[in-house]
Amino acid sequence: MGYAVREDDAGKKIGGNTGNLLVDVPAPVPDAPPLIFLCHMDTVQLAVGVKPVIDGDNIHTNGKTALGGDDRAGNAEILEVLRLIKEKNLPILPCR
Predict the structure, then answer these.
(1) Contact status, residue 39 vs residue 76, Cβ threshold 8 Å
(2) pTM tops 0.70
(3) How many CB atoms lie under 10 A from the CB of residue 67?
(4) pLDDT tens, residue by residue, 22-59
């Protein structure tokens, strides 16, 4: 989407292999207060090799792995919001 991404050193501080990914999105509204979207990216080992099963409006596993859907869905939602903000030039305003 053209946004600059940076990684902090949180991973090193806790003995992990990656830090937090941070993206600053310029607000189209001058002097708008910051708005933060956040989600974790890690997933449990049981979700490795997941094969999601779509059953109508429900998504679940085939019973052999964990879905890990909370992580993946949260990240997909954030990316979709950022895409819409950029595509439609939406003003980023704080919740009241």
Answers:
(1) no
(2) no
(3) 20
(4) 888 777 677 777 778 888 877 788 888 888 999 999 99
